UniProtKB/TrEMBL annotation:
Family per record: Belongs to the peptidase M14 family.
GO process annotations (BP): proteolysis
Protein's recorded name: M14 family metallocarboxypeptidase
Organism, scientific name: Peredibacter starrii
GO molecular function term, any single one: zinc ion binding
InterPro entries: Peptidase_M14
Amino acid sequence: MNKQHLVPWGAAEKANWLKEQTIKRSYKDEVITKIEKLKSTMDVTQYGALSINPSLYPVFLIKTRNFDKNKKTILITGGVHGYETSGVHGALAFMEKEAKNYTDTFNILCTPCISPWGYETINRWNNLAIDPNRSFIENSPAEECVLFLKAMEPFINDIYAHFDLHETTDTDNSVFRPAKAARDGKEPDPWSEIPDGFYGVGDTENPCFDFQKAIIDSVRKVTHIAPADENGNIIGEPLEQEGVINYPVKSLSLCAGFSNAKFTTTTEVYPDSPKVTDAICNDAQVAAIKGGLDYLKNA
């Protein structure tokens, strides 16, 4: 193999990669318009904007009204990886259609699209070829994370549960993992297979078995749950239970690990399955949140 291929990218390679990225859809038309409609029933604030184009990429925090310190606070995050579409639209659908059914019990916060440039360019990375979902740390190199963490400061000690909405797509193997290997100067390491169906990712240090099961049981009413591969794994990790694996979310600097929330989950919808539609994918994200919240109401 050409050893030059194994040299990590420098500034020039990252700049060349950026030049290759193109706008494929509209954050304003597809996301901001939905956020604007929520202003009649919820508190919506802009907590920053991406410096690559502040006028195009504002980021928003949505709050249910009448926050009550006596209620537990729930956080929903979407679009940490901008290309994971149902994470964004599932979060917005929950806030539009379902959040009102839980405000007697919970305060609800939602950042529906943390990475709007990634949304428009259908990218896992930000414009600096950084994965935001490995960057939720103090002095983060990812601007998306810096803005989010600043916005969360007033709530950081009150977050009881955190739902971080994601997707696993065919392009994870065909596009993003090869790009990551090239960026890092390593051999390509694709997953053995992309899971066909929904799965969840819990925290290795705080797995919340019953909470994750409640999510899976809710989602299975909407779409199918991903089976394990021949080795009993999903994306190389052993099953904790049906449809659930665990990651060390804090040591990996994942969004789900930024706080000390008692309950956390990262949802993973599979939009490339022939068994689903975009609407089913969005509904699966909503079902995951509802299943978790219904469990927490009685926890």
